[in-house]
Amino acid sequence: MTVSRYFTITSRPEGLPSPDVFSLEEMELPALGDGELHVRNLWLSVDPYMRNRMDGVKTYIEPFDLNAPLEGAALGEVVESRDERFKPGDKVRHMAGWRDEAHVSADSVERLPDLDVPLQTYLGVLGMPGMTAWTGLNTIAGLGSDDTVLVSAASGAVGSLAVQLAHQKGCRVVGTAGSDEKCDWLKSLGVSPVNHHQSAEALTKAIKAAAPQGIDVYFENVGGPMLDAGLASMNDYGRIAVCGMISRYNSASAEGPANIAMVLTKRMRMQGFIVLEHWADYQKFIEEAGPLVAAGKVEYQESVFDGLEATPEAFLSLFESGTYAGKRLVRL
Amino acid sequence: MTVSRYFTITSRPEGLPSPDVFSLEEMELPALGDGELHVRNLWLSVDPYMRNRMDGVKTYIEPFDLNAPLEGAALGEVVESRDERFKPGDKVRHMAGWRDEAHVSADSVERLPDLDVPLQTYLGVLGMPGMTAWTGLNTIAGLGSDDTVLVSAASGAVGSLAVQLAHQKGCRVVGTAGSDEKCDWLKSLGVSPVNHHQSAEALTKAIKAAAPQGIDVYFENVGGPMLDAGLASMNDYGRIAVCGMISRYNSASAEGPANIAMVLTKRMRMQGFIVLEHWADYQKFIEEAGPLVAAGKVEYQESVFDGLEATPEAFLSLFESGTYAGKRLVRL
To answer: Domain range spanning residue A17?
Structure first.
């Protein structure tokens, strides 16, 4: 008999979730069914989009049910297999995160590529955050090597790969971050840093100083005044890939960009995307980013939290500016 | 010696221009140069985008100079030609509007297509407004016959052709307008009308009632609360062609759409465009819309103002909701 320990939410949070919204529960897993795998998780991912799933509203993805196991990306080892494609010891990526042990359908898991990289990179730089950066720059914004690129939240899990992929393509890159330390790190990557704790007007000036030629591609993770500044900084025919608006996830109402009419005057294209809908391109991404990561040519930061119990803390750290950096991971 | 009478602006207006910003002047035209045409104007166009040119700010087009002849689309007859491609009596379209007589470069004028339609339609339904509607729907929004379409300011010069082109393609169409009379006219065209003098919330409800299936393509002419309502009404993967934001042209500051994050959650694409940059496709537009207009299958409204002196009044009528409808024209 296998016991699975898992997190639930017991109510719908308003604004920034309080830690006591989360509850650690356990259940006995039933007998393993045909076509299922018993997976023991090694690494769990926590990501900003999960905040949206805590609201009871269907957006592009179903909301989390109350008092049921939360979901998220995870890496695990197959302990028992009732599918001929997998055997015990195989490492897989799947969505039964926020827990230690899980029964999952073999059809729903991904076998990991064969690269000489640390396992947890498949949740970060070679996982959803990395694939998100690649998709936004290439599929959505049509990045070219002549473009000047602005990435907001550029020290985050997604942003930090976006700036590096753009930089390696030969683009000039401006990145915003929330502390001097993060800005220094961006600078070491060849990125012109801008501290994003400023008014829209001050941000606009700082971006102008960092890139007097203007911005062609804007990879947007933040929203709020940052979006006003981004719109103001764009060149004609600029492309904005809207990946996230983390500044809005915890506030019920917010002002929109007062300069939205610039979409017209500068003939811009602004497009939202959800990486899961572009997963068919994962192989293309791995072919470009995998060798760079294996060769140590991509820097990535991780903030590792230890033990299943730390999962809510890891998640909430996503909404604190300045303390933690890079991909938030839970190691089991 | 030919005298040209022309309008200037004598100062930069703030908000809605006062009539006394405009000044009627006259000058003697110099001798006609090689490659030039002397054109006598028959019809002048006034258009919302001209308001932007009155600000001293370069956007996608140079601002109007103070105390110099204003510009705009016009139809005229060649009186004298110093270019072998044109002869006296030819009808041409050109940009030396806001005046009665002009010398223009033969390279800058367009010969009109040979269709059995009233001359002034080349400033309206077969001119820039019609081409704008066609470009926004097709080139920018990628309209398909299964789409449900929302057009704001649907009784205007651009909007009224947008709704009809979409309707003739088989689309279900919702159009907003500013009076019961205009809404009745939209209804007679097979369009579900919504009065746009409502809050964003009420507009959203009214659009939902008119199109419970949601909106796939939104042709945006208005901005302000209308844009909030449009964003709220869109389906996933909706496309927004931003053609104008007339509600903002006369206000220095305005709130942006509070629900801008829907661009992300619904994976929308929002793109601004300027029809002049798509003029290479004019022939494609004429092939589709020309025969429809010649056969009387497209209804269009005109508000005709008589005499050069009425040009400022015609222009200012664009910003009054409810009194005039359709294309504003000045007949000389």
So the answer is: 3-124+300-331
